[in-house]
């Protein structure tokens, strides 16, 4: 399976996301922009004259731009299971890193929407007592999500700490 | 000594002796007899609201009835409300077991709440004005996720205080029989705010003056431009509300503020009309915030606020000299010396392009026990989180900050708050992220247990 980032970057084992999420997001992008481009071209071509139909191509530019952006965003997502905490890193322009010590986890959630299920994807979300904790890993393979959930729960119990 | 004598008197009373049989199923108790009166207010209020909305119809309907029938209708309403109040009182029970406070209520929709005593974040005994006249009090337990319903209103004042002492003793880990007999723990006063100081501090608050100015100017402006009296009143009311809560409201609730220390934790007593007695057990404070408004700095006064998970109370000391406030904070966060924290300002290079002028206000200090971040230039705020309370650590960096080589470190705590250290050099922030996660993990190990007396 294709993965985004692999190998050691000096801070534990970074693991990237599997390719499914990128495929899903790009497919959604295509499904939105191509009909929009066709619709715009048709409308302008019929009402304002054939040369104006070329404006529909601006949607294709948006598609190309979004295609690249989604790829960069997908590559930026990665996580590392370290000895005592989980590290999640994401974002291209606005970068963010979250560290959640295993002992602080209150709940590990695996969610999967209908579209995600269709593509064999699942998300893992970690909840701590702090509402601001935004530790979510989207687009994992279901087996990996379950493995992660079980491992995090196990580690959380072993290192459990109160408030 | 007086506290112990009081405890014996309590133990001799019929109420306090009841739960001594610990092994047997817990003895259920009822609330004070005056409670139905308070419960009946809810439907009365609803009826009055409906009547006010449909005033015309009711007028027409009532004028067709004779005086006797009107009287009967009124009587029927009173009886219905009275029965509702009585039944809701009759079906509300509470019991204290070894580990829980159980509240059972509801006539049609039954509800049973079991509140774990070792999870108590704070206990409040409040006496609203009318309740003070009647000699009753309200007891509220702050537990994470608890609702407003989980309060005992009303109890006889003496009983409320005894129950608080018993709950705290059990939460602290004393044996059940001991817990009843123990009575209220002795307390030692740490600080008391003089009313004169409180008044001066409120007068020196810029935001109150700003609210007053806005409250005067905005309605005049609205009157000038629209000439509509209703619009003027509509703009004035929220302004007056803000002004009230910022000045007179604060004066009423922060009047005669006392901070005392006891083995059960910190005691806060305050209020002019409504008296409140709050108890925060040891080790429950998630964040302490020290606020220094501009006009207070000449007098070296500070205001101390605190965050406790699941609790609505936010103020620890409304106004005090810096030294006195630091002594109180040292009690709340043991082993923390605020005067010794060495704050490091954000670097001038870069910072001044990200947050012009105001960058000077940002500073950070990390000691062996706490993470402290400062911000603000006019009103300076310093937020202090013990490492043991940190739930997760985050680092964020926007594009412009990256160009300037800066990053932000956020520290999330259990009271739903986040302390942010802004404008830190990127390399320092990255190192801080790792170090902070490690400190959060290790410092929990030597924190006090939830049952603080065990």
TrEMBL record, chain A:
Matching InterPro entries: YdbS-like_PH
Residue span, YdbS-like PH domain: 74-152
Pfam family, any one: bPH_2
Protein's UniProt keywords contain Transmembrane helix: yes
Keyword NAD: no
Residue ranges that the Swiss-Prot or TrEMBL entry lists as coiled coil: none
Keywords associated with the record: Membrane, Transmembrane, Transmembrane helix
Signal peptide residue numbers: none
Membrane spanning residue stretches: 27-46, 52-70
Name the UniProt record assigns to this protein: Membrane protein
Protein species of origin: Streptomyces roseus
Automatic annotation (TrEMBL), chain B:
Transmembrane segments: 71-92, 198-224, 230-252
Coiled coil: none
Keyword check for Transmembrane: yes
InterPro entries: UCP026631 (IPR014529), YdbS-like_PH (IPR005182)
Record key words, sorted: Membrane, Transmembrane, Transmembrane helix
Record-annotated YdbS-like PH domain positions: 89-166, 258-329, 359-434
Keyword Transmembrane: yes
Protein name: Membrane protein
The species this protein was found in: Streptomyces roseus
């Amino acid at each position: 399976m294709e993965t985004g980032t692999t190998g050691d970057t000096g801070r534990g084992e970074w693991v990237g996301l599997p390719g499914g999420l990128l495929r899903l997001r790009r497919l959604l992008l295509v499904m939105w922009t191509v009909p929009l481009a066709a619709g715009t071209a048709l409308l302008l071509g019929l009402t304002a004259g054939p040369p104006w139909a070329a404006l529909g191509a601006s949607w294709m530019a948006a598609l190309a731009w979004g295609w690249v952006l989604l790829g960069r965003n997908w590559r930026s997502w990665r996580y590392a299971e370290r000895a005592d905490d989980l590290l999640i890193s994401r974002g291209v322009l606005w970068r963010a890193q979250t560290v959640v010590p295993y002992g602080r986890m209150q709940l590990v959630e695996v969610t999967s929407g209908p579209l995600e299920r269709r593509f064999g994807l699942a998300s893992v979300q970690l909840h701590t007592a702090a509402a601001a904790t935004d530790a979510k890993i989207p687009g994992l393979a279901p087996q990996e999500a379950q493995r992660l959930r079980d491992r995090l729960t196990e580690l959380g119990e072993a290192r459990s700490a109160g408030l | 000594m007086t506290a112990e004598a009081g405890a014996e008197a309590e133990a001799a009373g019929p109420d306090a002796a009841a739960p001594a049989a610990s092994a047997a199923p817990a003895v259920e108790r009822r609330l004070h007899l005056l409670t139905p009166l308070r419960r009946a207010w809810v439907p009365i209020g609803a009826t009055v609201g409906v009547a006010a909305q449909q005033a015309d119809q009711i007028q027409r309907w009532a004028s067709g009835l004779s005086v006797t029938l009107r009287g009967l209708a009124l009587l029927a309403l009173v009886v219905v409300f009275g029965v509702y109040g009585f039944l809701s009182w009759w079906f509300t029970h509470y019991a204290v077991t070894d580990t829980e406070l159980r509240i059972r209520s509801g006539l049609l929709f039954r509800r049973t709440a079991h509140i774990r005593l070792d999870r108590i974040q704070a206990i409040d005994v409040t006496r609203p004005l009318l309740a003070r006249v009647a000699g009753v009090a309200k007891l509220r337990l702050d537990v994470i996720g608890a609702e407003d319903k989980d309060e005992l209103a009303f109890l006889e004042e003496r009983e409320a205080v005894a129950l608080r002492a018993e709950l705290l003793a059990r939460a602290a880990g004393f044996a059940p029989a001991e817990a009843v007999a123990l009575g209220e723990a002795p307390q030692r006063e740490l600080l008391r705010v003089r009313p004169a100081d409180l008044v001066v501090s409120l007068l020196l608050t810029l935001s109150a003056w700003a609210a007053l100015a806005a409250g005067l100017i905005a309605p005049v402006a609205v009157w000038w431009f629209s000439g509509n009296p209703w619009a003027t009143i509509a703009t004035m009311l929220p302004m007056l509300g803000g002004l009230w809560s910022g000045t007179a409201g604060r004066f009423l609730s922060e009047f005669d503020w006392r901070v005392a220390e006891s083995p059960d934790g910190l005691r806060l007593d305050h209020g002019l009309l409504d008296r409140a007695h709050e108890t925060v057990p040891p080790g429950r404070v998630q964040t302490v915030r020290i606020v220094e408004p501009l006009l207070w700095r000449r007098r070296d006064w500070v205001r101390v606020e605190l965050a406790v998970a699941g609790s609505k109370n936010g103020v620890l000391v409304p106004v005090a000299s810096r030294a006195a406030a630091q002594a109180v904070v040292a009690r709340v966060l043991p082993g923390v010396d605020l005067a010794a924290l060495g704050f490091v300002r954000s670097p001038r290079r870069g910072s001044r392009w990200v947050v012009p002028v105001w960058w000077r206000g940002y500073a950070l200090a990390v000691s062996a026990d706490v993470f402290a971040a400062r911000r603000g230039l006019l009103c300076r705020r310093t937020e202090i989180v013990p490492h043991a309370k940190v739930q997760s650590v985050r680092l964020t960096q926007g594009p412009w900050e990256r160009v300037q080589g800066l990053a932000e470190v956020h520290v999330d705590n259990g009271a739903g708050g986040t302390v942010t250290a802004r404008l830190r050099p990127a390399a320092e922030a990255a190192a801080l992220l790792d170090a902070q996660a490690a400190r959060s993990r290790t410092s929990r190990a030597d924190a006090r247990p939830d049952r603080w007396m065990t």
